[in-house]
Amino acid sequence: xxxxILNRLPPEHPWGQRVLTFDCIDSTNTRARExxxxxxxxxxxxxxxxxxGGRGRLGRSFHSPGGVGxxxxxxxxxxxxxTELMHLTCAAAVAAWEAVENTCGLRCGIKWTNDLVYGTxxxxxxxxxxxxxxxxxxxYAIIGIGINCCHRREDFPEELQDMAASLxxxxxxxxxxxxxxxxxxxxxxxxxxxxxxxxxxxxxxxxSHCITLGREISLVRADGAVRHGRALTVDPEGALVVQFPDxxxxxxxxx
Length: 255
What we know:
Elements: H1 2-6, E1 19-22, H2 28-37, E2 44-48, E3 69-76, H3 88-104, E4 109-111, E5 115-118, E6 121-132, E7 138-148, H4 167-171, H5 177-193, H6 199-209, E8 216-220, E9 226-234, E10 240-243, E11 249-252
Parallel strand pairs: 1-2
Antiparallel strand pairs: 2-3, 3-7, 4-5, 5-6, 6-7, 8-9, 9-10, 10-11
């Protein structure tokens, strides 16, 4: 798997020598965090064929069977304060969107804040995590991306079959997982180079791909409370700006 991915990257790609592959791992994000704490350099990429403990946002699991998906995490070391990286998940979503389009020509959508979707079906998800220094600056950032590539409907658990799809299910073609992994590496490397200086452009692309905007939504809080409103836009920090029935407007960062 590793050589197949490297064959699809330029020989001089700066992250090429930092790609680690695993037949099976608990979670690429979990392992990336361990490596980051032990000094792994920026651009260290972890790719697994299968995960036994894939993680999503809000403590959810991410179904990660072998042979059908791409499960990738990258360690970054941006020199900034955490408050300057509020848009990180949005930036990663744009990179994943570009990698999917470059791999199979599919223009999917982004459901705020971190899901790749086609219609009502989820194609993939993103999980970002930060490690901080005592002074509040960022020690490391981890971007984890999982994309359903070659699943058939029956490869998903029954409870997910009406909510999830794969790139091959949508396009009707087999998807080259190694090419997608290489395109993800390329897109994330480009994103990393302009992560701070190019935020405005990244957020503009995110808004243009975000299917949530303009829709009536139900916002479910962690405590189970539900509020209904209309999604207006996504602000520069990646929060969803929602207008509620009483006319109030609020920037929502989770839910």
